[in-house]
Input
Amino acid sequence: MNNQTTTAPLNYLNHKTGLWSWLSSTDHKRIGLLYFYCIVTFFLSAAVLGLLMKIEKVAPGETIMSAQTYNAMFTLHGVIMIFIVVIPGLAAVFGNIMLPIMIGAKDVAFPKLNLFSFYLFLGGACIALYSQFAHGHSPDTGWTFYVPYSAEASSNVVIALVAAFTLGFASILTGLNFIVTIHTMRAPGMTWFRMPLFPWSLYATAWIQLLATPVVGITLLMVIAERTLHVGFFDPKLGGDPVLYQHLFWIYSHPAVYVMILPAMGVVTEIFPTFSQKPVFGYVPIVFSSLAIALVGYFVWGHHMFTSGMSYESRWFFSLLTFLVAIPSAIKVFNWLSTMYGGSVDLQPPLLYAISFIFLFTIGGFTGLTLGSVATDIQVHNTDFVVAHFHYIIFGGMGFGFFAGIHYWFPKIYGRMYHIRWANIGWGIIFTGFNLLYFPMFIMGIQGMPRRYFDYDPKFQLGQTISTIGAIILFAGLITMISNLIYHSRRGAIAPANPWHGVTLEWQIPSPPPHENFDEIPVITREPYVFDNPYTK
Amino acid sequence: MSTTEHSEHSEYMDSDTGKMGMWLFLFTELFLFGGLFIVYAVMRSKYGEDFHHAAMELNAFIGATNTVVLLVSSMTVAMSLTAIQKKQKNLAIGLIFFTILLAGVFLMNKYFEYGHKFALHLYPGSDVMRNLPHGEIMFFGLYFLMTGLHLFHVVVGGILLTIIMLKIKSGRINEEHFLLHENGALYWHLVDLIWIFLFPLLYLIT
Output
């Protein structure tokens, strides 16, 4: 960065220096980067936990850890990945960095609140870590904190609950900030339907964050009250109802799945037009499918409880609603494919990730229908099939969306270019490892391999070993990808302002963006994806 | 255009933006309590009879007093906002001070009410509670959790109102810039609103 200061004009990375100028910055781009570094750190540590769990399963019986350690590991893996990495991930990182620029604003509506959310997030993350190392056992309830076990377990469940509550609060405030930003700070002339689609997906996401997270907040508080005050809402001995907890938990946690996936859909929706040099196919249907996913996603939580006691009618109802979610998701898939059709497709790393996003997300989506229909769900409930399904959605969807996003916006964020060939190689290793790791779990799940078991019947030996090999390959791929990015964030070739010939606003300002984004707020006169502007020539 | 953009970065936020943020925050508060109302609805339908008996233990007189106290305080905080807009600074300070005082009265009543329950060993986890019918255990659990969470909001609201009072005194809230005052009043109305639902659900179902 130092050699840059002499040649390049000041930008948000170097207009002020020193650690404090970062930690106290209310600049949305710097806050986004702070989130980015935290989230990547946590992602890697939770990925190591995942790898260790897979190594444990390389052979039947105890290989490298005891059952209790395994339980603590999948709990921590889940808590970190869900609450710290995947739920905040895309919105907090790329939402923060790109949303104000893409709608032509200088910052979010509440910059100080934005910084406050970051510290809440950091605090929550630290509490989550503390729950592992505090006096007593690490939590071993899984990230879902199901009662009655979570109310009775002797491990540090309360600390983990406080962590999840704090992280939820940070998520609410980020959502609130984005909604107000999108409502009040769009550039003049940017009507709702001239707004790019990534901000649209963030808008749908923010409403879910705002309206669903408080419900899980109060639910976690009730479990805390259950443990500390013995109020007994979820304890059958005192007249409570454990299934009630599951309902309250999933009223949030199912919509939270769409908090994870919607921004990823938004990212790839930006990538397809740019790398096809063609307007996005079906702008309006994409907007409404995002809103529809957010809306319908709110009413499908019951499908998590097909096996825990529910009337025939409600199963029927929740199953139907679950199938309905597939419609807007499929609309998006058709739109992405049609965007590429007839375009001049340039197969760069962001597009590779975006295409594999469609592939993996579609597999995850179809297996989601298997789980959404009552009869098959009862067969595969609580097996590795479920684990494989949500990893295809969450990792294959949100994770690959995140990787696509970082490869897409990297030159804008750092003003440097990564090594394209190494990025492609990294993608190949990750994609191979991913499928080797998770696909066998579908098959083993159908054959009856239960989830969350540290040991297994020897008949699963082959599948488990393939899966472990996949995990090692995947991890190697992650290292390849990340080292390419880290190395070139400082030493890569200087990137032009618009390396991919994109047409949305972020590509019309210098790389890296100046401190206040725009010298003059742009006036928007047309739709977002029109590929005839002077910058592309 | 650049002038309006510039004002976003000045000390005083655009009041529409700030108010929208507050309204959204109030939505989340309603959903927070919403979770407890769901549990209430489920338990009430399961144990209607027990709820009826347990609710007799609550002191409807104190509950009604607190309802009046909060309703009046909601009025005075709104009057204080109007006073500020009409440049009547001292009246605004007086009215908001009165609001804080009423918040104090509410807390005092709650202290006596909770104190009485504790004297009877009617609190979650106590030996007396353990031997009550299931529905009554649920009722008192909900009573303490719902009014407790509401009480926490009263305390936060009281602190917020105190900050507003100090800012009116120092002139940082004035007839042109009263966003914080307005938001504080909105928050206080929420505290009032939630109580208006808690009061009949807990005290008047006997």
